Amino acid sequence: MKLKARYVDVDTGEVTALLHDDDCAELGIRERERVKLSLNGKVTVAIVYTSDTVIKRGEIGLMGAAQHTLGSQDGDEVEVVTASKPESVEYIKRKMNGEELSTEEINTIIADISSRSLSNIELSAYVTSLYINGMNMRETVDLTKAMVAGGETIKFSNGPIFDHHSIGGCPGNKITLLIVPIMAAAGCKMPKTSSRAISSAAGTSDIVETFANVAMSPSELKATTERVGGVLAWGGSLNLAPADDLIIKAEYPLGIDPHAQLLASVMAKKKAVGADYLVIDIPMGEGTKVPTMDEAKRYARDFIQLGEALDIKVECAITYGGQPVGRAIGPALESIEALSIMEGAKGPNSVIEKSVSMCGMLFEMGGDYQGIDKAKQILESGKALKKFQEIVEAQGGNPDLRSADIKVGQYSVDVIAKQSGYVGQIMNKALVRVARTAGSPKDKGAGLLLNKKVGNKVDKGETLFTIYSEHEWKLQEALKLAVRLEPIKTQGMVLARVPAFSRVAL
Fold it and tell me: Given CB 3.0 to 4.6 Å as the disulfide criterion, which of 66, 139, 178, 423 pairs with 355?
């Protein structure tokens, strides 16, 4: 059947085509089945959506990827025939039944994900199958290698290549902004790729974007790293393990992050940039991805084992994640905090200690056994700041940037303590919800600045944290949420009074 092309400006996240109900009946297909589309020698397979109003009989509505692949213009005649489900759907069903998948089956699944051959429902089924049934280490290695093979890889002229990654779950973790310039100032190559926020208040790329460009091609990343020693790039612009970005989109609405997929997601991108030495930060504690020490140690063992299979030397740091790292949450606020430390600020201690500890581990993996002292010296001497400025300039930013130059949201409000006492608990997820309601990470100036952390003494009426926003109405919504959630809990030293039992005369 030949149908006239019509562009429909809707992106479903799939390769999709919109057909009239009558044309579907003639082809003998139903909604969400597949058709093969051909135009001027170009071919794609699309998932069918149906309509009897939006599209006329004899037309085919081409959306997003389908229109782009075919290069169609409105009115072009597109050849339409029925197509079968991808073979990988059967392999996903096998994993749903708890079966072990072969190397070839895993390769096929990832290839179909990368080519957008799977529907959103099928992709969700894949993610759910891994969440329920998991993968053994052999499968996880194959999964990682398949994800690497599906995208770009970068080979540097000389090494070694150092890298760092946090698995996330702890707000305010802006240590990458310190680690990269410290390592680069020591003459180490560190092509750091990072993500944008998915469910957090700010991803590293959201933070860096407040003062530099983060989108790079693989050749630009390589050239910049070899010239200045390090980069702070957005991984989404580099086509490294592209299946991962599509899988993450399926994970987000489900609120799940399968163990094997998380391992493969991290390690595939590190393998793609040629990492030789890698430190994994595993924040542990209530409200993080990893709530217990046993689970953290399991992740560490698996990361190290997977690294051995990929020829990457891996060490893991299980870090305290029970409260934010530092006091700033949100792109601009975190930029200010990190840059002020490089400018000479003496705190927050949690940011400094965590950053130099990670650098120390990397230095020691490379053979320098005075790692932490070396990292502290580079930071305190101003060498890290100088290297940071070089990196910023290389990424199109102002090399003379100072922390005072970075602007935060013009609207702010203090959240105050209702009683005197001590901070007994900080709920990370609640803080993130408040920051996102204020506009973070899209609004770079939005976020939170903590005045108090766990163990700090609080007087009634003192500021617990300040909310910043670029819009007054978002600030008000964030304040309402903060009042309802109470993300910072205060309590007196006496939690409850239990009186002695006394006998009452009858």
Answer: 178
Class for domain 162-237+257-403, per CATH? Answer: alpha beta
Residues 133-156 pLDDT 10s? 999 999 999 999 999 999 999 999
9 is catalytic: no
At the second CATH level, the architecture of 411-491 is: Alpha-Beta Complex (3.90)
**How close are the terminal C-alpha atoms of the chain, in Å?**
96
Q: What is the mean pLDDT of the chain?
A: 94
Q: Where are the beta strands (DSSP E) in 367-409?
A: none
Q: What angle do CA 309, 272, 114 make, to 5 degrees?
A: 100
Cα–Cα distance, 387 to 378 (Å, whole number): 10
The two three-digit tokens of residue 45, written as one number: 């397979």
Contact 250, 287 (CB under 8 A): no
Say if CB 276 and CB 312 are below 8 A apart.
yes
Quick: pLDDT tens for 3-51: 999 999 888 878 999 999 999 999 999 999 999 999 999 999 999 999 9
* CATH T-level topology, domain 88-134: 1.20.970
Q: In sequence order, what DSSP letters do the residues of 174-232 get, joined into one string?
A: -THHHHHHHHHHTT-BEEEEE---SSSS--HHHHHTTTS-----HHHHHHHHHHHSEEE
The string of pLDDT tens digits covering residues 266-286 is: 999 999 999 999 999 999 998
Q: Which CATH code is given to the segment(s) 2-83? A: 2.40.40.20
Please pick, among 257, 281, 302, 443, the residue that the annotation labels catalytic.
257
Task: Please give the structure tokens belonging to residue 504.
Answer: 């009452």
Domain residue limits, the chain: 2-83, 88-134, 162-237+257-403, 411-491
